[in-house]
Amino acid sequence: MPVTDVTTDAxxxxxxxVADFAAPVERVWAAFTDPRQLERFWGPPGWPATxxxxxxxxxxxxxxxxxxxxxERSSGAWEFLxxxxxxxxxxxxxxxxxxxxxxxxxxxxxxxxxxxVTESGTRMINVTYFDSxxxxxxxxxxxxxxxxxxxxxxxxxxxxxxxxxxQGKGTRTELLDDTxxxxxxxxxxPREFVWRAHNEPELMRQWLLGPDGWVMTDCVIAAAAGDxxxxxxxxxxxxxxxxxxxxxxxxxxxxxxRMVTTERMTGVxxxxxxxxxxxxxxxxxxxxxxxxxxxxxxxxxxxxxxGMTDGMEASYxxxxxxxxx
Length: 325
Hints:
This protein is an alpha+beta fold. The chain is 25% helix and 40% strand. It has helices at 25-33, 35-38, 133-141, 144-152, 155-160, 162-166, 191-199, 201-207, 297-304, 308-322, and strands spanning 3-9, 14-21, 49-54, 61-67, 73-84, 88-95, 108-117, 122-129, 172-175, 180-187, 214-220, 228-235, 244-254, 258-265, 273-282, 285-293. Helix 7 (191-199) crosses helix 8 (201-207). The longest helix is centred in the last third of the chain and has 15 residues, at 308-322. 25% of the residues are buried. The model has no long low-confidence stretch (mean pLDDT 94).
């Protein structure tokens, strides 16, 4: 992971984050000064960022919001104080309301980003300066250290490029913590089509089948937040297994970029999962990222042990081979 150290200093009222990237300084600088690239790593997993304003000049302003799987928003703004391309920039970062005004009860911070040349690429040193011990304690209690670490650990994917990161590597499963799993798969095709393949029943019935020998028997789509969905499968041609299905509700739908749903197996009591699907396109290919939140480590391990990743790979390979055009 790129982040190598995060420390807080109550006497100096600072938080310092250090990360090393295998990319030139100019490439790292470009990622921090292009809002479309920033959106791919600025928010931690589950809270992706959307930049709605970006004036990268001294005195200029950037505005963004991060959206949770449940649709909650946390909004912020930068004011650029100093820019020394490609080595250093400095901003005032603060929480804002929907109109862009400073949010009541929330502190602002001065932040510096420095980019140093190393033998392997670039070292980034990010220092956050707080106005008081209370502000430092308030934001660290809100998870600033963990959130910043997870966000910056996503930057290496952006720097590497989607094809170099994921092409030819199939479906990959990462355990982020006891209850969160991240699944990634590069699809050779445009984002709009991959979105359609997840949201049009006639397309879903052609690829979302897992291993050969199964057919989708039910497919009801959740087109908007609050809608319910259900899917079901059954074995054919003597394939072993019993029919099963899933059902749930859409929590967030932002076509063609993101969709968040709850999921539980039909007819099974107890808590289910929250599935956060996001699609990023680059050079005609789409990186599919599925962040799954489980209610417990035990359920996570039980579901992964069913061969879920292999079944997903069979489906994604089928989509890529038979549908993408």
